[in-house]
Amino acid sequence: MGVYFLLLFVGLCWGQYNPNTLPKRTSIVHLFEWRWQDIALECERYLAPNGFGGVQISPPNENVIITDPQQPWWERYQPVSYKLCTRSGNETEFIDMVTRCNNVGVHIYVDAVINHMCGANAGAGDHATCGSYFNAKTEDFPAVPYSGWDFNDHKCKSRSGNIEDYHDISQVRDCRLVSLLDLALGKDYVRSRIAEYLNHLIDIGVAGFRIDAAKHMWPEDVKAILDKLKDLNARWFPAGTKPFIYQEVIDLGGEPIKGSDYFGNGRVTEFKYGAKLGTVIRKWNGEKMAYLKNWGEGWGFVPSDRALVFVDNHDNQRGHGAGGSSILTFWDSRLYKMASGFMLAHPYGFTRVMSSFRWPRYFENGRDINDWVGPPSNADGSIKPVTINADTTCGNDWVCEHRWRQIKNMVIFRNVVDGEPFSNWWDNGSNQVAFGRGNKGFIIFNNDDWNMNVYVQTGLPAGTYCDVISGQKENNKCTGKQVFVSGDGMANFQINTDVEDPFIAIHVEAKL
Ligand code: QV4
Ligand code: CA
């Protein structure tokens, strides 16, 4: 009996840090701006068969419709109510997506925008994705309902009412982030409306939440909301399972608010990860891959089991949020695949793969003035479906990085090596590096400007392995390079600088 209670206790106390994916499914993908019906299809036809653990979806609650500029992607970060209708779909389609994805073992993680409502300048009327009336000026949101009493105006001490100084902890929490009406999360009434919204999603079957703009909420207010949440729906999750919580806290250092302030609630997004990895792979500021030997906490990141990591996200892939110009995105595809390969092979953190849409970037004075452009859409504003081409890529300007062979195969690699230690590190003192994961997998990079031809210890059993970067194992044949590992675990790797992808990855499930 004692063991049972111990397991229950362990389950209870660390529940919210546990991503709640099925065993050996170790990544989620952010299907940014996808429609619910397309996500349901992708779960069944692609994500489940390829071992993705879940999907982060765009905010599913009613948002303001902005016409200047024309329906920017960021209008979805301006709530009008907690009704489940947006350009991605209505409540029926949302329920269908969660049910179908859960039924194939791919879980749903909701982007929860709970720090604020719409911008102060969003006007009044029913220009919202569910047609609900609201009045930003009078802070009237009858579809929740919220009134002027439910916002932080009296608590904010800044001159403009907006956050003016990120070194003033109270301003960051109690004033408006770029004029977004700041909810009074200190009030039980507001906490209860938000908990009602999140519990409605839990009843439908979601597995957890990205807490948007967590830095702008007092950790104890977030905790008070989380304490009101139900356990996950027992139709798909073991009894007593807590929702997975990962909080968006941009902490690159230099501000009083730290990611660790939020550990009591769940994991946090580690933005240093993508910023530093981009700098190393671009070989900027004298950085080189040999320095990645102590990657993770050794680089000042939060503890691995409190980290949600990513190469880029929907903000910093377009110059919003944090990370600056070092962030690698699909626009830098060759380096992006290397960074994604490194992230997915390395044991640090829980990994999220970005899946984007293409937009007409247009730089003026070094800034992309089209950074606002929303998802591919029709003349009536409806979002275009995700079409799948014969070569498995996506059409209609959906980038589908998660379907790129190199990235999809590294998601599988991470599943195969799950639980195995970081091992057999090798480097040439410059930008040729390699490491293994126990006796299950091995990866090697050549990011130098000269060819590589080395013999290194892989830690793998003898045999012939298919490189899952240049190809994969199909019908017991390698469609790309082959690697021969000898009885002592040694293998020869040749990577010329002109190859499509200057890295090789092998694992025991891609062995002939
Ligand atoms: C502008 C001015 C304001 C002015 C206001 C009113 O900047 O100073 O007061 O007009 O005249 C959009 C516009 C922004 C506009 C604002 C309000 O871009 O120019 O303010 O609306 O009208 C996304 C976008 C924002 C966007 C916001 C709301 O990135 O540009 O603002 O949605 O539509 C910090 C936070 C971090 C945040 C990051 C972007 O610590 O939490 O900034 N990241 C999250 C999300 C992000 C989202 C929000 C938070 C807000 O990842 O996508 O912002 O929910 O680092
Ligand atoms: Ca706030």
Summarize the amount of helix as a percent range. Answer: 10-25%
Secondary-structure-derived class: alpha/beta
How big is the Rg? 23 Å
Q: Count the beta strands.
A: 24
Strand order of the largest sheet: 1-2-3-8-9-10-11-12
Low-pLDDT ranges = none
Mean pLDDT: 97
Backbone shape: globular
Give the biggest beta sheet: 8 strands, parallel, barrel
Number of helices: 9
Strand content: 15-25%
List the ions, cofactors and other small molecules found in this model. ligand QV4, calcium ion
Span from first to last CA?
45 Å
Protein name: Alpha-amylase
Cofactor: chloride; Ca(2+)
GO molecular function, one term: alpha-amylase activity
Catalytic activity: Endohydrolysis of (1->4)-alpha-D-glucosidic linkages in polysaccharides containing three or more (1->4)-alpha-linked D-glucose units
How is the secondary structure organized here?
Blueprint: H1 2-14, E1 27-31, H2 36-47, E2 54-57, H3 91-103, E3 107-112, E4 116-119, E5 124-125, E6 134-135, H4 169-174, E7 180-182, H5 188-204, E8 208-211, H6 219-226, E9 244-247, E10 267-269, H7 271-281, E11 307-309, H8 333-345, E12 350-355, E13 363-364, E14 367-368, H9 405-416, E15 422-427, E16 432-437, E17 441-446, E18 452-457, E19 463-466, E20 473-474, E21 477-478, E22 482-485, E23 490-495, E24 503-507
Parallel strand pairs: 1-2, 1-12, 2-3, 3-8, 8-9, 9-10, 10-11, 11-12
Antiparallel strand pairs: 4-7, 5-6, 13-14, 15-16, 16-17, 17-24, 18-23, 19-22, 20-21
Helix pairs in contact: 2-3, 5-6, 8-9
Bound molecules: ligand QV4 and calcium ion.
The site of ligand QV4 has 19 residues, from loops.
